[in-house]
Amino acid sequence: MDKVKIFSGTSNRPLAEKICAGLGVPLGKIDISRLGSGEIHVSYGEPIRTCDVYIVQSLSHPVNEHLVELLIMIDAAKRASARTINLVMPYYGYARQERKSAPREPISAKMVADILTSVGANRLITVDLHADPIQGFYEIPVDHLTALDLITDYLRSKNIRNPVVVSPDAGRASTAEKLANNLDCPFAIMIKNRPAHNVSEITHIIGDVQDATPIIIEDLIDTGSTIVNVVEALKKNGAHNAFVCATHGLFSGPALDKLNNPNIEEVVITDTIALPEGHSNKFVMIPMAPRLATAIQIITEGGSIDTLLTSHTV
């Protein structure tokens, strides 16, 4: 590990600090500033020549600022003769734009992949992509980790009465099925219509939720509107208060207030994105830093990343 250097962007420095603590290495010195015009300036504060550089940066809000900041950090590392430049990007911004759903639309997730690799990234470590095929957008190694087993362990510790795992839409059905198998309980699927971005309407529920405790599983929570709609629909169909689980908590706009809903028991997320101030005690954060630290150690010293993926899910 003597050739490993870990640096943090400004999106989630506490996560980078926890990763370094797990590896027993200091967080690298770097100066990131904004010029008067808003331009981003980066300067590494220590030599990184022939080192394996890991840059920790989630593409959370403001996503465009954090993306450009990451690109400049990559370019600076390449020009400082780093041996490899490895991106620890727990949350992959623009992942919801992974395909064309209408004419004349971009595939922004592929564009981000092209930019990161062309600037100089040699590897990507990420967590619970919105769409698995995004891994195929890259010609460099992609280590796709998951938080599903960590969420499973937490839910088991709660001894939830009569649980039913709920997928908010058909796209999350596979993940819901895995979680239901892990918890040995049934699962249900919500059918919804999306008239616009970040707007959804629940039309049907497939599965029995009467007198059950719903466990809603998502990859991310953005505005919270969809989750609240799902919770209210479940309540109307005779369900108890719900546990809401997601890997990434974006919590845009008034999402924290929306999720402080009397029909929500807990909101379980991980620390891939820093949790904003002012949240209620309903929010439970599961640490991803130990898993990311282990991934870095395996990549550096050898071994199989698969050991981080198969404790509950196959």
Architecture overview:
Helix 1 (13-23) crosses helix 8 and helix 4 (148-158) crosses helix 5. With 314 residues, this protein is an alpha/beta fold. The longest helix has 17 residues, at 63-79. The protein has helices at residues 13-23, 63-79, 108-119, 148-158, 173-183, 225-236, 255-259, 289-301; strands at residues 4-8, 30-34, 40-44, 52-56, 84-89, 123-127, 142-145, 163-167, 187-196, 199-206, 213-221, 242-249, 264-270, 283-286. Helix 3 (108-119) links the parallel strand 5 (84-89) and strand 6. The radius of gyration is 20 Å and the shape is globular. The strands form 3 sheets. A 7-stranded mixed β-sheet has the order 10-9-8-11-12-13-14. The chain contains 8 helices and 14 strands.
Features:
314 residues, alpha/beta, five-stranded parallel sheet, 27% strand, globular
Sheet having the most strands? 7 strands, mixed
- Cα shape: globular
Written as H for each helix and E for each strand, in order along the chain, the element string is EHEEEHEHEEHEHEEEHEHEEH
State the helicity in percent bands: 25-40%
The overall strand count is: 14
Uncertain runs with pLDDT below 50, 5 residues or more? none
**Assembly category:** single chain
Strand content: 25-35%
Strand order of the largest sheet: 10-9-8-11-12-13-14
Number of helices: 8
Structural class: alpha/beta
Rounded mean pLDDT is 92
Q: What would you report as the Rg, rounded to the nearest angstrom?
A: 20 Å
Give the termini distance in whole angstroms: 30 Å
